[in-house]
Design goal:
Blueprint lengths: L5 E4 L15 H6 L3 E4 L2 H10 L3 H5 L2 E4 L6 H12 L4 E4 L12 H9 L4 E3 L5 H9 L6 E6 L6 H16 L2 E5 L5 H11 L5 E6 L7 E6 H4 L11 E6 L2
Parallel strand pairs: 1-4, 1-5, 2-3, 2-4, 6-7
Antiparallel strand pairs: 7-10, 8-9, 8-10
Helix pairs in contact: 7-8
């Protein structure tokens, strides 16, 4: 018996961003009955947005998060060993990029299961594309510390790395702390360091702007509680 395939299925970044999904996504989803999801409620929104309620009700969803064990990963991939396709869905964007999924993908490789990543919106890549910063050398570092003085020390360390390697550094923050992030960046970075903010990507109020830390002072964008990606490039 041939093995099934593991599809990495993109999710929308914005509730009105379904136009950013690939045109074949409905065909792929309807070919699968076993899904590995980050949050079932959020995954169901994708099904409903694609008018796939009946298929959603006929599908099985296993939850993948930081608490999921290695044995559970194996159980999630068992349908592939039985010749069935399995799909991974994160809460937003592409699975396994700043979201759960990488461990299961690696296990799939170890088990000889074909992995198929689908085209879809990635907030990290869209932010980099729209920033005008260096796209030849870049690094995504996830979340930075919340508490001081670790937070400012981390910002300065990342700025030094950016300058040394001419590298764009990208990171994210919990949306309700976006304004505090902007304030901390302006306080900690050299005035001439480029700072790019990309928020609400693929949505109707998408915002992308790049300018110096000096120019951002007192002119913060209205992105509080809006998912955002921050990028810096020091010179």
């Amino acid at each position: 018996m041939s093995k099934g395939k593991l599809y990495l299925i993109p999710h929308v970044l914005d509730e009105e961003g379904f136009g950013a999904l690939p045109t074949n996504i409905k065909d792929v989803i309807t070919s699968i009955n076993d899904f590995i999801v980050e949050t079932p409620k959020v995954a169901r929104k994708l099904f409903l947005g694609l008018d796939l309620k009946d298929h959603m009700n006929a599908s099985e969803m296993s939850v993948l998060n930081k608490k999921t064990s290695v044995m559970e990963w194996m159980d999630m991939l068992q349908p592939c060993l039985e010749g069935k396709n399995v799909g991974i869905l994160s809460d937003a964007g592409c699975p396994a990029i700043a979201d759960p999924g990488a461990d299961v993908v690696r296990m799939a490789h170890d088990m000889g299961i074909q992995v198929i990543p689908m085209i879809g919106p990635s907030s990290i890549l869209l932010a980099l594309m729209g920033s005008g910063l260096n796209g030849q050398s870049f690094a995504f570092v996830g979340y930075i510390p919340i508490k001081q003085p670790e937070r400012n020390k981390t910002i300065k360390r990342l700025e030094a790395q950016s300058k040394e390697h001419n590298r764009t550094i990208l990171f994210i923050e919990t949306p309700y702390r976006n304004e505090q992030m902007m304030s901390d960046l302006c306080k900690s970075l050299h005035p001439d360091t480029q700072v790019s903010v990309a928020a609400g990507l693929t949505g109707p109020n998408e915002f992308i702007k790049t300018t110096t830390a000096k120019n951002w002072k007192g002119k913060f964008p209205k992105i509080q509680k809006v998912p955002a990606v921050f990028s810096i490039l020091a010179s």
